[in-house]
Amino acid sequence: MTKIVVIGAGVAGLTTSYLLAQKGYDVSIIAKNLPGDIDPEYTSPYAGAEWYSLASKDEIFEQELDKPGYFELRKLAKDPKSGIHIIDSYEYIKFEDADNYEFPWFVDFVEGFEMINDRSKLPDDCKFGFKFSGLTATTTIYLYYLLNKCVELGVTYKRYKLDHINDAFSLHHSGEKSDYVINCTGLLAGKLNGVNDPLVYPVRGQTLLVTNTPKKQLTVSNFEGYDDEMLYIIPRKEGGTILGGCFQKHSTVQEVDTALIQRISERAVKYCPELIDPSINHNKNYLDIVKVNVGFRPYRKGGPRIEIDKQNSKIIHNYGAGGSGYQSSYGMSGKTIELLEKSIKLNGSKSKL
């Protein structure tokens, strides 16, 4: 049985480990952070975790990463333990953006796509909108869910801070040298010796968790004077909502921006007044903020790195998802496993079973 060490226990590492275990590989996860930890560099718990692909119509590779997640996560939503929520996802398009607006590439396959042209159903500054049947995951619940799925299939996990990627080969739970290492370290790929990827950079996000719960997800872009901000409203299955946000490249500021809290709050109430409608989901008539979250998305210049290491063909890289970690998790993991099996053939490794 081929022995594999997966580095990282964010959504990328856990999804990759889960799919590997399903295929019969002997997997150990090693990670600095595990589900339940709070660390700005451990991005997965901070994510909005909705499915909404930002790939353009020309970005075919990115589309291939995002599309599988729509179907796989909807399947998992049937399990109440997953924390995945099927919910209508809306986008409103402002007048100044309407003439040049390019509809998302995914409108032909998502379920329930519908245009919104009735102005009485739109904010005053929006010309049209659309909706489709979307989904979101409660990150803390879903990460534990994935970890438990892994354990049920024999995957082990251990907290460990690597000094060098090559050290991972000696950390398989069997005590024997691992045959392969899969690198799902996210932001830490920029710091891990043996990888030290200079193309990795953080993108700061700040969100609010509120108890208020609307009946839909919502995205609105283009706020004058704030080019790196947008509004997204992402209700959770258990109640409560994530309100965001910002997209601040190369920022590692952990302190909360109080002015941004105010802007997010005002935008959320303007574009989704049902958030403070007591007749809907027992909402309070004000935004009831539970927590302000600051986290750092693991972006990479040029896009995700999914490739066999050029120096060691027994190391496969899978990181750099940016803000698309959940929706691209199945696509990225699937391509990573394809590369792994290609490398196994090239190396003449023994069968996994």
UniProtKB/TrEMBL annotation:
Residues the entry annotates as binding FAD: T43, S44, T185
Residues engaged in binding D-dopa: G323
Domain of life: Eukaryota
Record lineage: Eukaryota, Fungi, Dikarya, Ascomycota, Saccharomycotina
Cofactor: FAD
Name the record gives this protein: D-amino acid oxidase
GO cellular component terms, A-Z: cytoplasm
Residues covered by the FAD dependent oxidoreductase domain: 3-333
Keyword presence, Oxidoreductase: yes
InterPro entries for the chain: DAO (IPR023209), FAD-dep_OxRdtase (IPR006076)
UniProt family annotation: Belongs to the DAMOX/DASOX family.
Organism field: Ascoidea rubescens DSM 1968
Flavoprotein recorded as keyword: yes
Keywords linked to the UniProt accession: FAD, Flavoprotein, Oxidoreductase
GO biological process: D-amino acid catabolic process
Family annotation (PANTHER family): D-AMINO ACID OXIDASE, D-AMINO ACID OXIDASE (AFU_ORTHOLOGUE AFUA_5G11290)
GO molecular function terms noted in the UniProt entry: D-amino-acid oxidase activity; FAD binding
Alphabetical list of Pfam families matching this protein: DAO
